[in-house]
Amino acid sequence: MSDSASPQRWGEEHMIDLGAVGGPAATAAPDPGPAPSPARRFPRIHNAALAYAAIAIALAAAVVTVVKWSPLHRPLAEAAVADFLEAVHEGDVEAALALTDQADAEGAFLVPEALDSRWEIRRLAQVAYEDLGDGKAGAQVYAEIAVGDESVVGHRYQVAIDRGEAQIVDAMPESEAWGSLEYLDLNGVRQQIDLTGAPTYILLLPGYYEFYPDLPPVLDFEGGGGSMLVLGDEFLAIEDGFIDTWMPTPWIIVNEEGEDQVNAALREFYDACELDPAIEGCPFGFPEDPERDVALAPGAHWQVTAYPEVRAERLWYEHGAGFGLESSLPGEARAQVEITEDGETRSALVSCPFWVYGLYAAFDGEAAFSIDPGTDMYQDGCRSIVEVED
């Protein structure tokens, strides 16, 4: 039997045939030779002596096997990957990076605070080796890490060996960062994300990461996913059990508690508009009409008779704005007005239907929402007014 042979000096490999220990290998029968010489008499060996000899041979084989498979005698490349993963698990970023060709790498998440030790090394083995000559070699080391019994991710690390020194090549590939909010939060460490400029790229050490661990109670992850396991360029979305080479940033949605707060913020917004229709985004401006002039009656103000309501499933976050609002039913406000038409003025009660489309529920990062007029798509005035009976 042969194993993942340990490299000798400067990365040379050797193999030990354990099948040769304890008995010769089977071979073809030799050609007949000359007649054997007369048999020589040997001293008789008792059965006890034979038993001791057999035990000695078995122990020798066991010693060789232990030496071959002991972690203390790992191939150089395998030992380097083991040391790298163990340093990350212990939170020693500097020691981990020193074993790679990215020793000088920097980034928001290359700090001990961004590492979570709730994972373990499941498997480690050198699976390929190439002697390049002049004391140099290349190797591949397969590693697996896991959280629990079912969440496992594997990766083949490339290791360069140069005269007895091993270095992991490209241990942390760059990943494009996308934030569910204006920032990406992993294990409580934040990185600002600007989607209006060039993409943001990050480096991640192996391990377990939670997205937005301090997510306010008004928000949830769509589908419940909020954690991942990372190894090299492999990302495992733990809740979904899906592995990809893209970082699986979860989508954040407003839950039922958040829905109540958004609707409460809407009511506050429209209540303020009742008293001051000049507030930005108030929908109570009269539409232009070349045939008549409409104005609030002296001392009159708008009164909301029906508030539009939004549902959580209709709330989608947009960077730089907030959660876009939609409602299947409009709201309504009424007011006493004076209508001047054909040189005559009369009083009337009018109704103004209004919609939330184009408004945004801006999130303050803690647990509160405020209403933002958002884009030019929002119509901040009555689309029409209808005279109603008093």
Chain-wise SSE layout:
Elements: H1 47-69, H2 76-89, H3 93-97, E1 120-133, E2 136-147, E3 151-162, E4 165-169, E5 175-177, E6 183-186, E7 189-192, E8 200-202, E9 207-210, E10 219-221, E11 227-231, E12 234-237, E13 242-244, E14 252-254, H4 256-275, E15 293-296, E16 303-306, E17 316-318, E18 322-324, E19 331-341, E20 344-354, E21 360-363, E22 369-372, E23 386-388
Antiparallel strand pairs: 1-2, 2-3, 3-4, 5-8, 6-7, 9-11, 10-14, 11-12, 12-13, 15-19, 16-19, 17-18, 18-21, 19-20, 20-23, 21-22
Polypeptide structure, described:
- The protein has about 400 residues and is an alpha+beta fold.
- Helix content is about 15%, strand content about 30%.
- The protein has helices at about 45-70, 75-90, 95, 255-275, and strands spanning about 120-135, 135-145, 150-160, 165-170, 175, 185, 190, 200, 205-210, 220, 225-230, 235, 240-245, 250-255, 295, 305, 315-320, 320-325, 330-340, 345-355, 360-365, 370, 385-390.
- Strands 15, 16, 19, 20 and 23 form a 5-stranded antiparallel sheet that branches.
- The longest helix has 23 residues, at about 45-70.
- The protein is rod-shaped and about 105 Å long.
- The model is unreliable at about 1-45 and about 60-70 (pLDDT under 50).
Strand composition percent: 25-35%
Overall body shape? rod-shaped
Residues in helix, %: 10-25%
Largest sheet: 5 strands, antiparallel
**Rounded Rg:** 37 Å
* Terminal Cα span: 98 Å
- Tell how many strands the DSSP assignment holds: 23
